Amino acid sequence: MTEFQAYLQLGFEHIADPNGYDHILFVVALCAIYTLRDWKKVLILVTAFTLGHSLTLALATLQIISFRPDVIEFLIPITILITAIVNMFHRIPKTTLVTQEKSSPLRYPLALGFGLIHGLGFSSYLRSLLGDESGIFQPLLAFNVGLELGQLLIVLIALILAFCVIDLARVPKRTWNFILSGIIAGMALSLIINNALFKEIISGGFQQ
To answer: Which domain of life is it from (predicted)?
Structure first.
């Protein structure tokens, strides 16, 4: 296996790893209001997220910007919670008929902005893999491609699941959105409450 293939596999496994499911939750939350018929809107939305996390992944891995990893670990579940809550306030007609979803234009800058935060989280993992390695451009590219492949797989699974529930089982879109987004919000809230920095803030021990 070449170095490129190794880092591509690591990127794919990192975002698709069920043990570190925070990024999976965020991608699913982005797709929660959509079905397979909305694939073009989903593609634009996921591209916005990709642009955001690719930018900060590169900048942080190249050590052009610095950040506190514990703060990023705390912010990531907050982005998931906010996205899930926004989904639950999204207006979907009370019908079992499936039509293309009208997205708020605010979803795209939201995905881009939250992508910046997730990219910093990806970079922490990549930096730990690279260590003192000097040639990081190829690993950075391969890792990012792996992330995108994993992300696309998650999106595909989410949209197929929505198709089965909405198109085949005839569950109303608004019901599916509320159930899925509610579950994601609950899991994100659990991640926040169990976060070490959150506990430190609650105890009054957080320092700048």
So the answer is: Bacteria
